[in-house]
Amino acid sequence: MQLRRADVLEGAIAILDEYGLGDLTMRRVATSLHVQPGALYWHFKDKQTLLGAIADSLLADVDSPTEHENWDGQLRELAHRLRDRLLSHRDGAELVAATYASRMVTNRIRERIAAVGIRAGLSRDESELTADTLLYYILGHTVDEQARMQMDSMGALADGTSPLFEKPDPTSRFDFGLALLVDGVRSRLGARARA
């Protein structure tokens, strides 16, 4: 049977979910697919390219249009959609953060968020900065959340508190920070209207 690009991607995601990003190597993917590591390079020129493809796969459709008509509802929906997708795979946030930093991901969530800002009344520059700020918030929050969940599963949290029982819970903390960001955009729009 011929090795397909989709097979490599599926095998890599399975390793990510089982072992985490730190143990996702080309050699491990090749071993799981019963091929030599060189066979993977026919489909992905290097590990960074593979990680970018994994990120794109994890983020598929996360940038699709929202159901809300108002800009603040659209931002909230996009933020939750992205967070949920990141949480659906082990080390998902760390992987996506790394691929965004290296510009290896092609998903258009940043552009979708910026477009919401423009429609709300922000300038293009402000909208792009808003998109970056929101993405950094989502990625950072979710990296921390996933790390705490993994540490909890190993009994390694220093304070002995499980993230599942923290007050407020991770989603409530996420919503609070998201509300601060949305309120900041609203404030900027209000200041512009008063000027």
UniProtKB/TrEMBL annotation:
Keywords: DNA-binding, Repressor, Transcription, Transcription regulation. It comes from the Bacteria. InterPro entries: DNA-bd_HTH_TetR-type_CS, Homeodomain-like_sf, HTH-type_TetR-like_transc_reg, HTH_TetR, Repressor_TetR_C, Tet_transcr_reg_TetR, Tet_transcr_reg_TetR-rel_C_sf. The keyword Nuclease does not apply. SUPFAM superfamilies: Homeodomain-like, Tetracyclin repressor-like, C-terminal domain. Residues 2-62 form the HTH tetR-type domain. Residues 25-44 bind DNA. PANTHER family: HTH-TYPE TRANSCRIPTIONAL REGULATOR RUTR, TRANSCRIPTIONAL REGULATORY PROTEIN. This is TetR/AcrR family transcriptional regulator C-terminal domain-containing protein. It comes from Rhodococcus sovatensis. The lineage of its organism: Bacteria, Bacillati, Actinomycetota, Actinomycetes, Mycobacteriales.
